[in-house]
Amino acid sequence: MDAGQKEILRYAATFIALIAVFYGGTVVLRNSLGTSNPMMVVISQSMVPTLGVGDFIFIHSIDDFDAVNIGDPPVGDILVFIRPGFSEEYIVHRAIDGTLVDDKWIYQTKGDHNKFQDGFTVDQDLVVGRVVNRLPILGYFSLFIKTMKGFGFILGLMAISFFYDNILPRKTEEDSGTFNVLSVAPFLVAPIVILKIWVAPEGHEALEIATLAAWYIGCIVLPLSTEDDDMGLMFWLYHLVLLVIPIACDLVWWRTGITPSNWWRIQGSIVPVSWLLMEETSLFNQAFTMIITWLGPGVLVFLGLLYAKRSNVILVKKISDWLRGIA
Predict the structure, then answer these.
(1) Phi, psi values for residue 285, rounded to 5°
(2) What angle do CA 127, 131, 134 make, to 5 degrees?
(3) What CATH number has the domain bearing residue 74?
(4) Do 74 and 222 fall within a single domain?
(5) Are residues 161 and 111 in the same domain?
(6) pLDDT tens digit sequence for 61-120
(7) Collapsing DSSP states into helix, strand and coil, what is residue 97?
C-alpha cells in the first residue's frame, strides 16, 4: 500500500469515527433525555432571542406534566410539540397558559418573538418534551447538508481534501522553517463569536461579518505557514464546514430575512437532526448564492496559495519561508 492510499484510508477512518461519535452521542442523549428526538434544530425566528435560528436545542422528556412551568417569558417552560393535525411538523414555543381537563393538561403556547399566541391549543399527548439547553448557530451545518447544493458543495471540498496530492502535486522540496502558530489566530475568532452568541444572543451581525473577514485572513496566512499541508488542509476544511458555513448561513438571515424555514416547503419551527435530503425552494437558491459569493473567493485563495507554494512560485515561496522563519 503506497503513501497516497494510506492517506485516503486515514481520512476515511477520521470521517467514519466522527459519524460514529455523532450517532453514538445521539444514542446516549436519547437514553439520558428520554426522547426519540433529543436534539433538534431551530429553523424559524419565532423564539428569537431566547432560541436563535440555527440553534441546536436539547429536549428532555416530561414525566410529570403537573410540574410544567406556565407563564410569560422567562417563567414558562419552552415546549417541543407536534402541531395539532400535522404529524410531521414540530413546533418549539413557550407554555404561557394551561388548563387541566380530565386529568390531562392542555397548553396555550406562544413564540417569544411572535406578537400573538398560537391559534391552537396543545394537548399534553402532543408534547415531545421541554427545552433544557441550546448550542447556538452550529445546527445550520445539519440543515445545509439537507440540501442538494449544500451537500454537493461540502462533498466537493471533501474530495479535494482526500485527493489534494493528486490535484495539487508538490513540485518543490520540503519547506524550510517551522509552523507559525500565529497563523491559526484568525480561526479563533469564529468559536469566540459563537461563545458570545451563546451568552448574549442579540446583536451579533457585525461580529459575524468580522468573523468572515478574519477567516479570509486565515485563508491567506495558513497555507503559507503550515509545515504539514495535509494537516493544514484538514484543519481549514473542518473549520470552514463546522463553523464558517453556519455563521454565513446565519448572516444570510440577518441580511435578508431568509431563515431555513424558507429553504423548504414546511411549516414547523424546528426539524429533527437527520441526513435526509430535502427539496429546496427558490429562496434557498438565493441564500446559497449569497453564501457561495461570500465564501467562494476565500476557498479559491486558500487552494490557490497552497498550489502556488507547492509549485515553488518564487514570491509565494519567499513569503512562506519568511512566515515560517519567524515562528
Answers:
(1) -55, -40
(2) 150
(3) 2.10.109.10
(4) no
(5) no
(6) 999 999 999 999 999 999 999 999 887 899 999 999 999 998 899 999 999 999 999 999
(7) strand
The single-letter code of the amino acid at 130 is R
pLDDT (tens digit, 9 = 90+) per residue, 256-280?
Answer: 999 999 998 877 899 988 766 667 8
Question: Do 93 and 110 touch, CB atoms closer than 8 A?
Answer: yes
Most confident region among 138-147, 222-231, 295-304 by mean pLDDT: 295-304
Which of 235-239, 270-274, 276-280, 320-324 has the least mean pLDDT? Answer: 276-280
Round to the nearest angstrom and report the end-to-end CA distance of the chain.
35
Interacting residues of 8 by C-beta distance below 8 A, sequence separation 6+: 162, 163
pLDDT of the residue at 320:
80
> The domain containing residue 121 runs over which residues?
20-135
pLDDT in tens, 153-202: 998 998 888 777 776 666 555 555 566 677 889 999 999 999 999 998 88
Placement of cell 418573538 in the chain: 113
Helix (H) or strand (E) holding 10: helix 3-33
- Let me know if residue 3 belongs to a domain: no
- Give the residue among 225, 207, 212 at the shortest CA–CA distance from 186: 212
**DSSP single-letter state for residue 77:** P
Inform me whether the pLDDT recorded for 291 exceeds 80: yes
Q: Is residue 8 a part of any domain in this protein?
A: no
Place of cell 469515527: 17
Q: Give the number of domains in the chain.
A: 2
DSSP of 267-315, one letter per residue?
Answer: --SEEE---------HHHHHHHHHHHHHHHHHHHHHHHHHHHHHTT-HH
